[in-house]
Amino acid sequence: MGKRENILQMVEKMGVRAEKDGYPPAAARILSLLLIADPPHQTFEELQQTLNMSKSAVSNGLALLQSRCLVEYFTVNGNRKRYFRIQRTAWYEFMKTIVRTQRPFTIQIIPEALAFRSDEYPETNQLLIQAKEFTDYMFGKMEEALSEWEKSQIK
């Protein structure tokens, strides 16, 4: 198996995992390729060609990854091409996004679900209470860790 086939096989393996985490197929494959590509930056055309994707699939995938602060682009003087790469703060931004987008569920939805439920099945109500307590605890720890990380990186 050649180098290109090995790359595509790894992209597929990583892409399937990213899809399980909720990424659309094109965004999952683009993210995967950018994580393993040498050089670590790729042009739009290189992404399209390597991944055998349409222009719209690459464009939509990149737009999603950029909106989630996972991918950024840069340009080179005298060259009109954009080069895409994993954003330097991608993992930090990814974790912040999880806290920002998932925490409202535990703050708002679980209490509403508890208020809506009857007392007929107390074990289910107790599970929801425990889920809220656990996620509140975990999100609190994540926020602390993100804050500590941010402070350690500002020098």
Strand segment count: 3
Helix content: over 70%
Compute the separation of the termini in Å: 46 Å
Helix count?
Answer: 6
Low-confidence stretches: none
Name the features.
mainly alpha; 155 residues; 6 helices; 71% helix
Question: Would you kindly provide a written description of the structure presented here, covering whatever features stand out?
Answer:
- The chain has 6 helices and 3 strands; from the N terminus they run ααβααββαα.
- The chain has helices at residues 3-20, 25-36, 44-51, 55-67, 90-116, 122-153, and strands at 41-43, 71-76, 79-86.
- The mean pLDDT is 91.
- It starts with a helix and ends with a helix.
- It has a 3-stranded antiparallel β-sheet with strand order 1-3-2.
- The longest helix has 32 residues, at 122-153.
- By secondary structure, the protein is mostly helical.
Compose a concise summary of this entry.
The protein is built from 6 helices and 3 strands, in the order ααβααββαα. The protein is mainly alpha-helical and 155 residues long.
SSE topology:
Layout: H1 3-20, H2 25-36, E1 41-43, H3 44-51, H4 55-67, E2 71-76, E3 79-86, H5 90-116, H6 122-153
Antiparallel strand pairs: 1-3, 2-3
Helix pairs in contact: 1-2, 2-4, 3-4, 5-6
